């Protein structure tokens, strides 16, 4: 009897093997050779799911191993393979949700990636250099990050998120053309520039006639984030030369001769600033040092006779309180430039951008005027007048009283012009003078 037990026990052990039952959320799904092998199998699945991104998946599933002894054939028939377990296990990834003003923007793999995106975006607009000392950088909006559990497809790479921030938020609406509408009028109605309206309608240009009832796209782009930077900048700036005009009655009317060539000077300027996304919103000059004095250009001009149909006031010519009619870069200064005399300033702008009166006064002349294109001439009294040329649209009429800062027209490229800008003149007792001497 004892021999039979021994023989029977030996036969059992020869036909069976140790194993571990894999329990998934309390349910047996098969066997693995050992708990260690089962754990390696689970780890392999979690690693492989995040393999392309370098992340490792995690699971909330309850996975347990129960030691047992089963027939060898049963282990082979009911073994848990990686493919089988991969189809049954539920996985997730830990990520970081990036929000601006509590609005989710993207999900990043880690907090480090979140910080890298913010740093890279700041560096677009706040770049320290030898001439630019940045004292502080912060975001205007409320920014937050919080841990989330997501699937791999929900992740955005840091590069993708940075590009999204660079492009800004795009809001698209449909506009139905109304009677008398034009591209510039539609832009003005919607607080946009003409070029911005055209950009939302590929294939369109300003020459395209709009039909009443036609539908066009209005695409407005606003930044997700505003970088507020403060600092101190030191650099060299040009001092445009002044132009001194003298009437020479020996010269024919309308002619001029340069008696002394002018040349620009330069100065070293240090100023503090506050910028939003790289644009100055506050600027204070701390120090100026002249490096080279400009040389005044002296011009002898033949006598000017007032036009019969435009009578301007005469007086002391004292000018005070003129304001810039348009904020933009200066494309061309007053004086002899490139072989010809330029009677004003060319201020860069976009077609359809409003410009304003530099001072209060009365409109003396408005309408088409040869090379000036659409032109406005305002008499401010005391012998002072200002001219605004190349407008795409004028919004004043002859004899109208105008206040300083009042919108009087829209930037254009009418008349003799190579591109959209505002030609601005200051005229004293019939002669043009350098506007920079009278502007703040």
TrEMBL record:
Q: InterPro entries from the xrefs?
A: Cell_wall_metabolism_enzyme, Dup_hybrid_motif, G5_dom, LysM, LysM_dom_sf, M23ase_b-sheet_dom
Q: Which CDD domains match?
A: LysM, M23_peptidase
Taken from the record, one Pfam family name reads LysM
Q: Where is the G5 domain?
A: 225-305
User: Which keywords belong to this entry?
Assistant: Signal
User: Residue ranges of the LysM domain?
Assistant: 173-218
A GO molecular function term, named singly, is: metalloendopeptidase activity
Please, which domain of life does this record's source organism belong to?
Bacteria
Which PANTHER family does the UniProt entry name for this protein?
A: MUREIN HYDROLASE ACTIVATOR ENVC, PEPTIDASE-RELATED
In Swiss-Prot or TrEMBL terms, this protein is called Peptidase M23
């Amino acid at each position: 009897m004892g021999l039979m037990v021994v023989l029977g026990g030996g036969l059992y052990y020869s036909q069976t093997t140790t194993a571990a039952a894999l329990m998934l959320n309390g349910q047996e799904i098969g066997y693995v050779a050992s708990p260690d092998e089962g754990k390696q199998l689970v780890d392999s699945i979690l690693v492989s799911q995040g393999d392309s991104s370098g992340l490792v998946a995690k699971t909330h599933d309850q996975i347990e191993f129960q030691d047992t002894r089963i027939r060898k054939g049963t282990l082979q028939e009911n073994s848990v393979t990686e493919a089988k377990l991969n189809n049954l296990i539920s996985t997730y990834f830990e990520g970081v949700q990036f929000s601006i003003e509590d609005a989710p923007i993207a999900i990043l793999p880690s907090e480090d990636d979140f910080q890298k995106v913010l740093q890279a975006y700041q560096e677009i607009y706040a770049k320290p250099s030898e001439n630019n000392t940045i004292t502080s950088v912060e975001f205007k909006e409320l920014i937050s990050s919080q841990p989330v559990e997501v699937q791999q497809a929900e992740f955005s790479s840091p590069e993708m998120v940075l590009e999204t921030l660079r492009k800004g938020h795009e809001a698209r609406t449909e506009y139905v053309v109304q009677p008398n509408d034009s591209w510039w009028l539609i832009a003005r109605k919607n607080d946009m520039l003409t070029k911005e309206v055209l950009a939302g309608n590929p294939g369109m240009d300003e020459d395209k006639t709009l039909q009443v009832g036609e539908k066009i796209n209005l695409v407005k782009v606003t930044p997700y984030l505003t970088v507020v930077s403060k600092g101190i900048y030191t650099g060299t700036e040009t001092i445009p030369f002044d132009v001194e005009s003298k009437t020479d009655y020996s010269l024919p009317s309308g002619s001029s001769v340069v008696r002394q060539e002018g040349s620009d000077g330069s100065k070293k300027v240090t100023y503090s600033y506050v910028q939003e996304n790289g644009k100055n919103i506050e600027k204070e000059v701390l120090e100026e040092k002249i490096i080279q004095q400009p040389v005044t250009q002296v011009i002898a001009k033949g006598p000017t006779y007032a036009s019969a149909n435009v009578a301007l006031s005469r007086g002391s010519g004292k000018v005070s309180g003129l304001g810039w009619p348009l904020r933009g870069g200066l494309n061309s200064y007053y004086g002899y430039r490139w072989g010809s005399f330029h009677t004003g300033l060319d201020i860069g702008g976009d077609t359809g951008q409003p410009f304003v009166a530099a001072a209060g006064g009365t409109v003396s002349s408005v309408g088409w005027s040869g090379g000036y294109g659409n032109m406005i001439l305002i008499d401010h009294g005391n012998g002072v007048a200002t001219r605004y040329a190349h407008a795409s649209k004028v919004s004043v009429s002859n004899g109208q009283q105008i206040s300083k800062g009042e919108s009087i027209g829209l930037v254009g490229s009418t008349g003799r012009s190579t591109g959209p800008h505002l030609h601005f003149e200051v005229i004293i007792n019939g002669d043009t003078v350098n506007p920079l001497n009278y502007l703040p």
